[in-house]
Write a structure and sequence with these properties.
A hairpin with a 6-residue loop joins strand 10 and strand 11. 0% of the residues lie in helices and 58% in strands. The chain is mainly β. An eight-stranded antiparallel β-sheet has the order 1-2-3-6-7-8-9-12, with no helix packed on it. Strands 4-5 form a two-stranded antiparallel ribbon. The two termini are 41 Å apart.
Length: 184
Amino acid sequence: LFLTDYDNLVGTCTAASGVDCEVGDAFNGDAATVAGLELSLSHVFATERLQFPVRLAFTYIDAEFDSDIADTNFFGDVSAGDPLPYIPETQGLISAGIEGAKWGAFVSGNYVGETCVRASCGAFETTDSSFTIDTSVFYEVNERITLTGTIENLTDELDIVARTPYGARSNKARTAFVGVRVGL
């Protein structure tokens, strides 16, 4: 369980904020509360030659303003009870893998619920909920060298994950990486 109780939440204008403000300007968010619950379970099932790690994680977050604030370029028009921007109510992860003595392969699914991008949470002021699947593999060539490969967003699912600055933007498309890790 967690609880964060803000008496004086401040939003700061940055070059990436995407609102009509001067970089460095501060905006009063007044009082806000972020409360929630996080659960995580993991276990490694094993045989004589293989291991099967699994993990589940879930987070529930209730994040809201505690007072009314006049319309600001940064937070929007805020009423007590409005959601804090860009904090999803639910998030979850599930992952599973298989590992041998010198190799391993993993798959994970990551869920992020829709979220408001402004306190008013009106039309075109929310993101999509998203579920992405990632995979990775490794092979230990020797004690110092490991080959790796990763595919992020395996299904190439595109969801709106941001709206500020500059309108709707999607998550990263399918991306593949290969690499070599060298231990010194």
